Every structure is written in structure tokens, then in C-alpha cells.
Automatic annotation (TrEMBL):
Fe cation binds at H128, H132, D334. Its EC number is 2.3.1.234. SUPFAM superfamilies: Actin-like ATPase domain. The gene is tsaD. The lineage of its organism: Bacteria, Pseudomonadati, Pseudomonadota, Alphaproteobacteria, Rhodobacterales. Belongs to the KAE1 / TsaD family. This is tRNA N6-adenosine threonylcarbamoyltransferase. Residues 40-341 form the Gcp-like domain. The keyword Transferase applies. It catalyses: L-threonylcarbamoyladenylate + adenosine(37) in tRNA = N(6)-L-threonylcarbamoyladenosine(37) in tRNA + AMP + H(+). PANTHER family: TRNA N6-ADENOSINE THREONYLCARBAMOYLTRANSFERASE (PTHR11735), TRNA N6-ADENOSINE THREONYLCARBAMOYLTRANSFERASE, MITOCHONDRIAL (PTHR11735:SF6). Required for the formation of a threonylcarbamoyl group on adenosine at position 37 (t(6)A37) in tRNAs that read codons beginning with adenine. Is involved in the transfer of the threonylcarbamoyl moiety of threonylcarbamoyl-AMP (TC-AMP) to the N6 group of A37, together with TsaE and TsaB. TsaD likely plays a direct catalytic role in this reaction. Keywords: Acyltransferase, Cytoplasm, Iron, Metal-binding, Transferase, tRNA processing. Substrate binds at L150, V151, S152, G153, G154, D183, G196, E200, N306. It holds the Pfam family TsaD.
Length: 382
């Protein structure tokens, strides 16, 4: 723990859960010993790996892990240099300890522990999803409680964020995450990687109504989602075109992309709207106690950059008198600034973690939520 009195804490954060190797230095102001946003991002370094995985149409865990091991110390050094912050002036080191690809998570945890031990600093293991969930606290000092839609290549969850370590899951995907479905769609249609931007670019000249693609689970109550069947329906539509005409034209590709994108945005926005309605009722007293004039829906994850999805979420918020909080794209996708901030929130409330803290491939935020399809024998992935 940083020694008192302190009016701020400064942390080095490390992120390596998937295919971004990142380091950042963040300063959090304190009030009564508790971090108060917005925080100050002194530096943020991100080394992407898209070029390493492009030929495979998706992330290869072994390649990702090796790249993290090679780049983490470089990223940390650059972040410290850009922030003008020597190790001696840090209060702690935070690193993603899960969930994620275990090779990358392990690389980040070991690098973070090594830096902390060498500098005599506390170490904090951070839940990657908590980093995303607390980003609105970092960027605008958003008060609890608020609702979060996390949509990325590896995760799809709707969460009530009640505190730095209090989360209630209102909905999730029972199979593919939206970003994963975008990547697979791009691969099916011969587009590049990562798939999200490629599909959105192609969809701009497409007709979203040409192909009757499904909206999975909209006929069922609740906020659970599914995207695997949508991807399969697109593949079958493509195969029918290939069988009928020997291939697909650029316009076919654009129409398929537009249809897939429209279906994804509709499912996400309708399911999120259901969660908004439930949240407003279940947490009315908490919102009133916090003096919140209008509830807030925050979005995070790479898919949150999708233009039709943002438009649909904006409309859902406007119809209900909600605020929409969308951090800059650099803080929606994986980064280490969010890990440093979440580390500060955890450090000041619970102190440092032990040096035998393990790396975890699975680490659900809501431990009381029932595991869903794809969770495996060890429990929910996230």
C-alpha cells in the first residue's frame, strides 16, 4: 500500500490477455483514500499483433503469447519514459491476471511481478473485464451504479456495475462473441483481419434487407444472446450464391456484410434495451441515493466502434432518457490504462496481491451467475 498521506497514486499497468501488448502509466486522485475519476493517463503504449495473425484469420494463442513475452518489457519501458515517471515514483504495478489466453496472461503476470519485486513495489492482479467495466470511471469519473455493454472479440456481456468489485451479469452470449462472429464472417467472405472494420467498410454499399438473416433469441425473454447461428446462416447464403453462379460478386459480398451487421446491431441493441429497463427498476433506489439524474449506459470493446450499433444504442438511450457513455476508441479496445485504473481501485480497497497470485484463463466478474454454454468444466469464461 502507498504510504499516507497521499492525494494521488500512480500505477504502471500491463495488458496481455489477447493480441494487444500494452503498458500505461495512470495517476488517480484520491478522496478519503478512494480513487476519484477522471484519472490522468500519463502514457499509453499499445503494440498490436494484427500483422502476426492476419494470415490465419484470427488470433493464434501460441504466436500471441510469444509476442507478449518479447514486447512487454519494451512496452513498459516506453510507457515509463513517455510519462517521465521513474520506477521509484510509482506506487504499484498492475497487470491483467485473467481472463484471457493463458500464455499471454501468464507473460503479463510474470513481467508485472518481476518489475514490482525488482523495484520493491506492491503488485495488483486485475480482472481484464473489470478494466473495461471501470473505464468510464477513468475517463469521466462516472458514479456507481451504471450499466455496461461489453462487446469485443472475446466477450459479450451486459453488466450492472455496482462498485469496483461488485458486478451483476444481466446478459451474455451463449456462444460466439460479436467480434469473433465479425472475424469469422470476414474470413468466410474473403475479407481481411480484423474482421469488424472490414465488414463495416464493405457494408457501406450493401443492402441490409436482401438476405433474410436471423435475429437469434429475440423471440425469447431475457438478455441472453447468440451469434453462432447468424454466422452459419450467412455461410449458407454464401454457399447458395456460389452454387448458383459459381462465386460471389462484390455486390453480393457487400449485401451479406450489410445484412450481418444489421442483424448483429439489432440483437445487441434490443437485448441491451431490455437490460436497461430491468436495471432502471432494480436499481432505482441506488440511482436515487447517488443523485443520478439519468441512468448511464456505457459501452466498451472493439465492436462498440461499429457505427450502426452506436446509432442503435444512441436511439435506445434517447427513448428512455438515458445517457450513453462511449470512451474514445483507444480506450474501448484492449489497453493498459484501464488495467492501471482498475488496479488503483483494487489496491486502495484491498491492498496488494501476493506474489503467488496465479494467472487465470477464466475469471467471471459475477461469480453468482450460472455458467452458460461454452463455460467448460472449470466454470464460466468471463
Amino acid at each position: 500500500m502507498p504510504s499516507a498521506p497521499h492525494d494521488a497514486v500512480t500505477l504502471l499497468g500491463l495488458e496481455s490477455s489477447c493480441d494487444e501488448t500494452a503498458a500505461a502509466v495512470v495517476r488517480a486522485r484520491l478522496r478519503d483514500g478512494v480513487p476519484q475519476g477522471p484519472g490522468e493517463i500519463l502514457s499509453s503504449v499499445v503494440f498490436g499483433q494484427a500483422d502476426l495473425h492476419a494470415a490465419f484469420g484470427g488470433v493464434v494463442p501460441e504466436i500471441a503469447a510469444r509476442a507478449h513475452a518479447e514486447r512487454l518489457d519494451i512496452a513498459a519501458l516506453r510507457a515509463l519514459e513517455e510519462a517521465g515517471t521513474p520506477l521509484a515514483s510509482l506506487d504499484a504495478v498492475a497487470a491483467t491476471a485473467g481472463p484471457g489466453l493463458i500464455g499471454g496472461v501468464l507473460a503479463g503476470v510474470m513481467c508485472g511481478k518481476g518489475i514490482a519485486m525488482g523495484a520493491g513495489l506492491p503488485f495488483v492482479g486485475v480482472n481484464h473485464l473489470a478494466g473495461h467495466a471501470l473505464t468510464p470511471r477513468l475517463t469521466e469519473g462516472l458514479a456507481y451504479p451504471y450499466l455496461l455493454l461489453l462487446v469485443s472479440g472475446g466477450h459479450c456481456q451486459i453488466l450492472a456495475v455496482l462498485g469496483p468489485e461488485r458486478f451483476r451479469r444481466l446478459g451474455t452470449s451463449i456462444d460466439d462473441a460479436p467480434g469473433e462472429a465479425f472475424d469469422k464472417t470476414a474470413k468466410l467472405l474473403g475479407l481481411g483481419y480484423p474482421g469488424g472494420p472490414e465488414v463495416e467498410r464493405a457494408a457501406k454499399t450493401g443492402d441490409p434487407y436482401r438476405f433474410a438473416l436471423p435475429r437469434p433469441l429475440l423471440d425469447r425473454p431475457g438478455c441472453e444472446m447468440s451469434f453462432s447461428g447468424l454466422k452459419t446462416a450467412l455461410r449458407r447464403a454464401r454457399d447458395r450464391l456460389v452454387e448458383a453462379q459459381g462465386g460471389i460478386t462484390p455486390q453480393d459480398r457487400a449485401d451479406l456484410c450489410a445484412g450481418f451487421q444489421a442483424a448483429t446491431a439489432e440483437v445487441l441493441s434490443i437485448k441491451t434495451a431490455r437490460a436497461m429497463d430491468a436495471f432502471a427498476v432494480d436499481y432505482a433506489a441506488d440511482l436515487a441515493a447517488a443523485g443520478t439524474e439519468a441512468p448511464t449506459l456505457a459501452v466498451a470493446g472493439g465492436v462498440a466502434a461499429n457505427t450502426p450499433l452506436r446509432a442503435a444504442l444512441t436511439a435506445a438511450c434517447a427513448a428512455r432518457g438515458w445517457r450513453l457513455s462511449a470512451p474514445p476508441l483507444a480506450l474501448c479496445t484492449d489497453n493498459a490504462a484501464m488495467i492501471a485504473w482498475a488496479g488503483a481501485e483494487r489496491l486502495l480497497r484491498h491492498g496488494p496481491d501476493p506474489m503467488d497470485l496465479p494467472a487465470r484463463p477464466r475469471w467471471p466478474l459475477d461469480r453468482e451467475a450460472a455458467p452458460l454454454i461454452g463455460s467448460g468444466r472449470k466454470g464460466a469464461r468471463a
